[in-house]
Amino acid sequence: MRRMFWVAVGAAGGIYAYKRGQQFAEESRERGVVLTVQQVAMNAASTVESAITMVENRLHQQRTSDGEGA
Questions:
Q1: Do 70 and 60 meet the contact criterion of CB atoms below 8 Å apart?
Q2: What pLDDT is stored for residue 68 in this prediction?
Q3: Cβ-Cβ contacts under 8 Å for 64 (sequence gap 6 or more)
């Protein structure tokens, strides 16, 4: 029964990813390559900034909980 559940979850996830990919491809054609590349670059930069902030916050929390202070 567990396998069937996870197969269903995987199938639903695959269908969702496929549809999102198709939508992205269609939007990319409409906007053109340059705008799509710019959008991907901005999203990547935003993701990196978020990751850096999360790591810094986590390190700050660890230092504070260890009694070292900021």
A1: yes
A2: 60
A3: 70
3-state SS string for 29-49: HHHCHHHHHHHHHHHHHHHHH
Threshold 0.70, pTM exceeds = no
Side-chain half-sphere CA neighbours of 4 within 13 A: 1
Instruction: Give the integer Cα–Cα distance in Å for 11 and 15.
Output: 6
Q: Give exposure, 45-67, as e/b (b: 16+ Cβ within 10 Å).
A: eeeeeeeeeeeeeeeeeeeeeee
Which residue, chain included where needed, has tokens 């930069």? 45
Q: Can you tell me the distance from the alpha carbon of 41 to that of 35, in angstroms, rounded to the nearest whole number? A: 10
* Cα first-last separation, the chain: 50
Name the residue with tokens 């390190």: 59
